[in-house]
Amino acid sequence: MQTLQAFRKIFDPHLAAVLKKRTQATGKFTSDQDVKNLVEYASALTLSGGKRVRPYLAWTMYQAFDGKKSNAVLDTLAALELFHIFGLLHDDIIDRGTTRHGIPTTQYAVATRLTKQKRRGDLPHIAEGQAILLGDLIFAWVTQLLHAPQFNTTITQRVSSHFYRMVDEVVIGQMLDVDLMTRVSASSQLVNEKMRLKTASYTFVRPMQIGAALAGASSSTDRFCEEFGIALGLAFQIQDDLFDLILPAKQLGKAAFSDLSNRQHTVFTQYIFDHGTSTQKKQLAHLFGATLSEKDRSKIKTLFTDSHALAHGEQLMNKQFDIATSAGQRAKLPKNAKQELLDLVMYIRHRTL
Fold first, then answer.
1. Where are the domains of the chain?
2. Helix, strand, or coil here: 104?
């Protein structure tokens, strides 16, 4: 989408500069090159990919209320993106991921280096510990960026309120997600709750509210952000789960069928558990937690197609896209801001990843 591309031309150089400043400052604390390299891996991971949806949505709402470009605002948007990287570092450990944005995940890169150096100890465990610590360091950078005295008290309080609510929601959502991975079955209510917390609020609602707060918009704008953001967020997550089932690993940039391998409950799996035949339920239970690859694609496609799980999930997804579109059309925002949000709905709706 052109507006997102234009935003990235402004934002990505600023994000790179923030990372350079933080890594250089932190790197002065040690003379050990391996630790320096680990800290610098934050930049490699952040700048190697990512859609920048969260800072873009904040920027769109900020500009909707006549917000002007400033380093202080871009720092806040950088904090949003770095918090996302913090979450991905921990998420990759939970999911035992080996690639992220087309490069090795942090723990995998560290484990590979330690093995080549013939280090001692439980190297995979140590590598995970280093990834956790890097995530903690990045979260410290986030709080430094957020709490710099750059805005008046009212704006700072509103931004902080939205941000820390977002933190609470996404962490609770992740806890729920991890807990569900241990269950034989879930429920549609819990799957929906997980999507609202982990994706809708985290990726859409709170970033939009933060952008509006930065511009000093009235709190009444928060209600629109909720309506639009929850619908688009639910559609986005269902779409992501769909991609995990239908796209090849090379296009995904991660292992094939990782949701099934990690026992992730989605609207697609839940439909089979709720409405599938006994044979289909057994087939799905056998796939949960299994090591899967492209050779399993045919039987997985057959299961999710014949059970009508794919059709059901796509119907839910399209309904939420329609709700988001309707909310965007009714929004009491400047015409250009409304159009950007509607363009974003179309961009996400028709994306291939």
1. 1-150, 154-353
2. strand
Write phi, then psi, for 231 (nearest 5 degrees). -60, -45
Q: Check for a shared fold between 1-150 and 154-353.
A: yes
pLDDT digits (tens, 9 = 90+) for 244-267: 999 998 888 777 898 999 899 999
Distance of CA 194 to the CA centre of its chain: 13
Distances (CA, A) of 202 to 157, 158, 242: 18, 16, 20
The two three-digit tokens of residue 169, written as one number: 């929601």
Q: What is the pLDDT of residues 30-68, one digit of tens each?
A: 999 999 999 999 999 999 989 899 999 999 999 999 888
DSSP string covering 26-58, please? HHTT---HHHHHHHHHHHHHHHT----HHHHHH
CA pair distance 314, 305, nearest whole angstrom: 11
Q: d(Cα 224, Cα 30) in Å, to the nearest integer?
A: 47
| pTM (global) more than 0.85 | yes
Q: Are 169 and 207 in contact (CB under 8 A)?
A: no
Work out the angle between the directed axes of helices 53-64 and 221-246 (0-180°, nearest 10).
Answer: 150
Residue written as token pair 């559609």? 235
Count how many residues are written for the chain: 353
CATH architecture observed for domain 154-353 = Orthogonal Bundle (1.10)
Query: Could you tell me the two tokens for 63?
Result: 């500009």
CB-count burial class (<10 Å; 0-12, 13-18, 19+) for 113? middle
CATH architecture of the region 1-150? Orthogonal Bundle (1.10)
Collapse the DSSP code of 276 into the 3-class scheme (helix H, G, I; strand E, B; otherwise coil) and give the result: coil
